[in-house]
């Protein structure tokens, strides 16, 4: 049999097939005798059976064909009805071993689901819309030059389901420190920094997520509402820095439509290990992590109290709202116990700033023994509560005892706000906005000479101050009201000369500011040197700072106003040989410092362990012990044997 190029039937040949009923006489005339025709048919059928078989191909293979159309004709074909690109791409889907040599001068016709594949357009229309798992019947026929069918074969073309895409993601938990400044929560730079801790993989391959994919970053502390503004995450963040030990959740939302994520859009892991979730309604991914704010271990473990949405720790005074102020203002002989039992229901203790669990307060948690119910005055009651580790925090609140209150007693108005907050150095007038009337039925003003205020506010020092106001009407009846004034960090214009009081042979850092975002400069001031200062300021934690001119500030903890050595307190390093034991909290440890009260390291000494010491010194009233080299520990948590 003479070999020739494989040929496919075009439009003309298709027309001949349309009149197939007249094919029989044509064949009988050409093929003599008929047995020769049967032999030729058998040979062609064998070749056809060998050449084309059932096929199962990936959807991606079909997509490639649809994207890059190929012809159904072999090189050298005379048919002008097909695309003239590669000849065998489509045929190879069927594992064709021979697409031409065994068919001689005959041609092949292909049809899909009954549609004659006379051009690429037909195949493309079928396969481009194919669904994964679909199966199509493809018919191949060998015909002679007159369109007579000599052999046929039907095969199945199945589109395989695509391989499942498994997307895993990790968003590494992170730790910051108390005093660290917060970064902008919506800047691309901040998003880029976040992405350093985010890893997304698709079938094991890393997905390079763009910062532009992040559409939202949210922060949530305890049971407080989520916020997209980190600066409002009270009380964890204050004045642009992390203010106290805590733990909170950070959640990021990513657009699956971003170019960096579009390839995995809609896919997530079903292994239960990935925190990545997908929302098809918004085409977004979300993932969250835990952020820990580290600080002093003792403070981090101690209980706190939640009142009116804010947290208060050991030593703080609860700023009562107007409702509780009125409830805890009682006439002589009033029922203090009942008023206090009602009030403590408004205060919720929790194990720590990180652990919101805790038992409700009971009467035995309150001490109001200093409240004299027989005498008018302002008294301080305390709440003391122990958490599940046995640590105790105490907070205070005022109780006011007044003369018998009647409808004819004067009414005091403390203005708005009742409990103001001001900054250090600000002016504060305790009488601004304060007034009183003769009684609730008599709006005549009580003159200032019949009003008084007990207590004072030191605007040079951060803290809480209690003021007690008393008004006396024309009948001689008195009323009392209490307010809490909170003074926060600020600056003053005080000047003078100071001395650096640190450790001989060492110096203290000069900072560019006293505020939360301060940074240490490369300057150091040696122990014992004298410097002129031009202003003072109190930071957000109540610590005093001194300004040496311009953006040069030093920490007041290391300052004295007499030359070190003349005050009776020695800062010299004294050699000793002793052994001591760490006395802190079981299960926790204390820090090792590179210098006394400076340069804290990441090393810890566990509670209950014993260590040999070689020297000691005193810094601002605290004894420090040297463990050898640049290793110092605070005597607050260390007991010499």
Please describe what this structure looks like.
By secondary structure, the protein is mostly beta strands. The chain has five domains: about 5-160, no CATH class; about 165-295; about 295-400, no CATH class; about 490-560, SH3 type barrels (Roll), CATH 2.30.30; about 575-640, Roll (SH3 type barrels). The strands form 13 sheets. Strands 1, 2, 3, 4, 5 and 6 form a six-stranded mixed β-sheet that branches. Strands 8, 11, 14, 15 and 16 form a five-stranded mixed β-sheet that branches. The longest helix has 18 residues, at about 35-50. The relative contact order is 0.06.
Task: Please state the oligomeric state of the protein chains shown.
Answer: single chain
Shape field: elongated
Output the structural class.
mainly beta
Radius of gyration: 43 Å
Helices, by number, come to 9
Q: Give unreliable regions as ranges.
A: 1-39, 66-87, 97-101, 184-188, 566-570
Largest sheet: 6 strands, mixed
In angstroms, what separates the terminal alpha carbons?
110 Å
How many structural domains are formed by the residues? 5
